[in-house]
Structures are given as C-alpha cells and as structure tokens.
Amino acid sequence: MRVELLGAYIDALNMDETVERVAGFVQSGRLHRVITLNPEYLYQAQSRQKLLALTNSADLVTPDGTGIVWGCKMAGQPVDERVTGIDLMLYLCARGNYLGWRVFLLGAAPGVAQQAAEKLKQQYPGLVIAGTHHGYFTGNESERIVEEIRKSNSQLLFVALGAPKQEQWIAQHQSRTGVPVAVGVGGSFDVISGRAQRAPEWVQRLKVEWLYRLAKDPARWKRQLVLPKFAWLVLKRYVLKI
Ligand code: UDP
After folding, report:
1. CB 230 within 8 A of CB 238
2. Is the CB of 159 inside a 6 Å radius of any atom of ligand 1?
3. Are 10 and 45 spatial neighbours (Cβ–Cβ below 8 Å)?
4. Is the predicted pLDDT of residue 61 greater than 90, yes or no?
5. Is 65 near ligand 1, meaning CB less than 6 Å away?
6. Average pLDDT for 123-134
7. What's the CA gap between 242 and 237, in Å, rounded?
8. What is the model's pTM?
9. For strand 2-5 and strand 8-11, is the pairing parallel, antiparallel, or unpaired?
C-alpha cells in the first residue's frame, strides 16, 4: 500500500517487507529505482515539481526519517517504521551475502567507497563488491562511470551522492548501466567505512538522530532549518487544514 504525504507516494512497508520487495526487483532483472525519502527532499520537492515526479515514478519509496513517519501519522496514514538508507543498504547486503549478489558502490569522497567495500567484504563474505567509484566527478565523467558500472555486471547499485543528486543521477543513467536495482543511500558509505559515526541506538530510539548529527556537524544547521519548515507544512495541511 502507498500512502500520500505532501504529494509524494510512500510505500507503507516495514524493513522486512521492503527487503523482500527489493529482492524481487533484483530477481526480475528489470530496471527498478528505490528512493529513501527524507523530509529535506520532500520539502524541496514542494517547489520543484521535477523532484516530486522523480519520487512518484520510483518503484519503491521508503519513509527515511522520523519526520516522514511523523508526517504520515499526521496525515492519518501511519507507516510501521522508518526505513533509512543505511539500514536498508545493510539489510540488502545481508541478503546478498546469501545469494551472492554483485553490488557496486558509487559515491562519497575519494577512498570512502573502497573503505566501505572492505568493511562490507569482512562482514558479508558472500557478497561480491563488483566495483566502487567516488562521488566527486564532473558531468562529463558520468559516461565513463556508467561504462565501468555496466562492465561490473552488478545486480544492485548503491548511490551515495546525497539527495536529490543521487536520485537525479540514477534517473538519468541507470538504464545504461544495465543494473536492475539502484538505491540512493545518502551518507551511508561514510558510516560503513567508519569515517562518520551513526547516533547511538538510544538516541535513535528517542527519535532525535537529527539533533545528534547537528551536534557532530554544526555546519548542518542550515540544512536542518528545513525540518521545522517541513513540520509546519504538515501541520498546516493535515492538522490545522489551512
Ligand atoms: N557526495 C558525493 N558527491 C557530491 C556531493 C556529496 O559523493 O557531489 C557524498 C558525500 O561525500 C556524502 C554523501 O554524498 O558521503 C551525502 O551525505 P549526507 O549525509 O549529506 O546525505 P544524507 O544521508 O543526509 O542525504
């Protein structure tokens, strides 16, 4: 079932169901795009129709972030749980470990995707990391990267360029990579490689991961200004109905 929040259609699936769905996409061999939707993206999409269209044409849209889960509740269409990019990526790697999936990691600063790949190989020896590439390339270099990905014969492409850049890159290039499933995963490689730390579980349980990230990286404040604006939009639309 899909629920609607501020014009975006979000799949009301829990993590297990999401992993099942993506595994089906991989098996089908046909092209599928997965978006892990966060409030920052959805807020931007209010004034950029193309971003909203990208979301609504994706094959699977997960509620990434407490803000989205809360928004769905306010809209009277609750979803079970948060399905974040990093959690989804790790669950998919665990599934790929059993099935011998080939995956490609594209994104993050030079060296990070490779470091993340090393960590994944240790944790999931059955997973095949068929290639990596950093995320700081020019538009002209995209074709060479597409070719590299195509040659890797991967089944799953994780793209960590930040939203909405990763969603745009996937929409524009995925078909030529020939990889059946592409997922935008934001800052996941930084965390998996060990370069960035995720909030401790208790902080996540309190649903204040955003506060932790702000404390760790105060430069994020500008970006996080969007969160109260997003909350206000949700309240106006669904609670105050103005
Ligand atoms: N990034 C990249 N290329 C760019 C801009 C960003 O590879 O041109 C990477 C950046 O190094 C980081 C990720 O994209 O690893 C975005 O992380 P962020 O925490 O901002 O993403 P979020 O998960 O919050 O969407």
Report:
1. no
2. no
3. no
4. yes
5. no
6. 98
7. 6
8. 0.95
9. antiparallel
CA of 164 to the centre of ligand 1 (A): 10
Among the atoms of ligand 1, which is closest to the Cα of residue 186?
23
Q: How many residues does the chain have?
A: 242
Q: Is cis: bond before 164, omega within 30 of 0? A: yes
Among 59, 61, 85, which Cα is nearest to 9's?
A: 61
The 8-class DSSP code of residue 9 comes to E
Tens-digit pLDDT profile for residues 157-206: 999 999 999 999 999 999 999 999 999 999 999 999 999 988 898 988 88
Our answer on whether the CB atom of 184 is closer than 6 Å to any ligand 1 atom is no
The SS3 call for residue 61 is strand
Residue 229 corresponds to which amino acid? K
Report the candidate in 118, 96, 86 with the shortest Cα–Cα distance to residue 184. 86
Q: Is 209 helix (H, G, I), strand (E, B) or coil?
A: helix
Q: Which of 82, 161, 226 to mutate for ligand 1's pocket (most ligand atoms within 8 Å of CB)?
A: 161
